[in-house]
Amino acid sequence: MDMNIYQDKTKEKAADSILGEFSASTRGFGFVHPFPEYEKGFKKDIFISFADSMGAVHSDIVECVVTQRREDGKCDGKIIRIIERGTKTIIGTLCAIRDKNSSAETYAVEPDNKKYNFLVYTDNYSAVGALPGDKVEAEITEYPDERHDALGKITRVFGDAESTEANYEAILREHGIKTVYDRAAAAEADALSKESISPEGRLDLRDEMIFTIDGEDAKDLDDAISLKTNADGGYTLGVHIADVSEYVKAGSALDKEAIERGTSVYFADRVVAMLPKSLSNGICSLNSGCDRYALSAFITLSSDGKILGCDIKKSIIRSCVRGVYSEVNDIFANGQKSRYFDKYSMLFPDILPNMQKLYHILYENSRRRGAIELETSESKIIVDENNRPVDIIRRERGDSEKMIEQFMLCANEAVATWLYYLDMPCVYRIHEEPSEEKLRALRVFAYNLGLDISVISAKAIHPHSMQALLDEAKEKGVSDVLSTVMLRSMMKARYSENCSPHFGLAIDKYCHFTSPIRRYPDLATHRIIKYILDGKINERKQERLRLFASRAAAESSENERRAMMAERDIEDLYKCVYMSGRIGEKYTGRISSLTSFGIFVELENSCEGLIPVNTLDGYFTFNERSMTLNSTRKTYKLGDQIKVKIKDTDIITRRIYMSIV
């Protein structure tokens, strides 16, 4: 949160009061998360009872005072002022409410997010064509207090609240994901896509063996690769990235649109692209056989995979083949016997085999330096022609996916190091080490699994230590459950204009350079590099670029967060729709999370459901330290295998309900 916005409010605040963001619970109470300058001295967020909330709504910026400090370090508080409302609109279902005495009907929106535990009464439903049972968006005109619900007016109607499409559109709206481009940006993209491509002023690499490898259904191909072996036994890895900055100029309508979106958002059956299709799938995409502008990073590597240098050039390339992960994996497995060998024959006998060799070298280096490999899996949702989910499968990663990942990691590290030693601005990708509180919880959990926690007990934690713990967990068959808890203990990676290590990757200098079609930070870094290559850097320009990097980092971090939440919610929606056709069926799953209100179970197809605690046989209590749910006769813990039956699904809350068989 940008505290500059509240500087005038800070001056007015009472002595010893705290400013922060209010996070409501579904049961009326909530917590204030203090802003960074007020965090010292608080073990956890400040508890606020419903009576002391002053009618604050989830995500409001508030001022509070501490009323009680408890022995366990936790605090109770009371809100004394609402500084700024964090929520202006509510998305929910329009309901008709009948008066018990007069039988008259009033209409209100019941929020989808139960943290907004109030109704929004409205009287303009008929004017906008909304019907009871419709998913709608309502603008709050009068906020709730301790005695009254909110008032508002409906501003948008999505359709039947039980329909997949209405929920899909509502999720995008809720997270602020734009689906329509500004007219000026779209027109600009169309005009640029028709421009001819010329090699003038660029390194001409069109005759080089450069190619792409992507998923079969990928349309925005922004990275291509090449490789040469050097006389000393080392390598020159070429990572050729679409030069999007050639088309998206600073201050243009397209640039304003791109920084506002920040990232492309990917769902099961569609994508909300950062850039219009004429650029993302057209003139910027490194389609095979097409001349394309690129920024080419030539990374010199020793025979043991150490980065020795990086040279960046503006280039023009022509991809010689449109590689597909599954096909290259088949070639890695079967060599010349692969049915795809003819398609890739120009890359033999040297290029592709040497790439595979270099990949293994880079991967081993990654393991040696301590990069953390969490055992997480992604799911792929298969939809039919009506966008209905018909199957959910685990997404498998073969050597070709891992090879491209290692090459992109190498390029990102090399470019960040190049910019750092030039003392030039950069949008770095940073990842802080876990907080002491989260590490403490991880130690307790790992100890209860019977693991040696001495490796993560040092004052200065290193990625090596986390990976050593994972390796031991793998030997004992508990790596999947430890990965889940370790992931929750990690800080979230973010963008910054200041160079700082990436803890998870165990890399000191790292940026995003390789995906400018779908990520704004990469585009911003390209723009800075182009100024350097064109010799347009002076002291004044350098300072302006530092300010640009700072803005790009802050906005990109927030946009990434919104996109991830939207992707997660829509994936949950599709899974809920899929499982709604399987009510009554029985499955074997594993406990993926435990709370005071129930057990979350993940099935083999990655769908996760809730077993409410009040449906269990007996009285259960939740132990937060050991992350177990206990009764006198039974203990449930993370990772336990459990047989369940699908009881119900709720499309609106995107929740699957289960019972124990």
Kindly describe this structure.
The protein has 5 domains: 3-84, OB fold (Dihydrolipoamide Acetyltransferase, E2P); 89-161, OB fold (Dihydrolipoamide Acetyltransferase, E2P), CATH 2.40.50.700; 183-428 and 508-568, no CATH class; 433-490, no CATH class; 581-660, OB fold (Dihydrolipoamide Acetyltransferase, E2P) (Beta Barrel). It is an alpha+beta fold and 661 residues long. β15 (265-266) and β16 form a beta hairpin. It has 13 helices and 31 strands. Strands 1-2-3-5-4 form a 5-stranded mixed β-barrel. It has a 5-stranded mixed β-barrel with strand order 6-7-8-10-9. A 5-stranded mixed beta sheet has the order 11-18-17-14-13, covered by helices on one side.
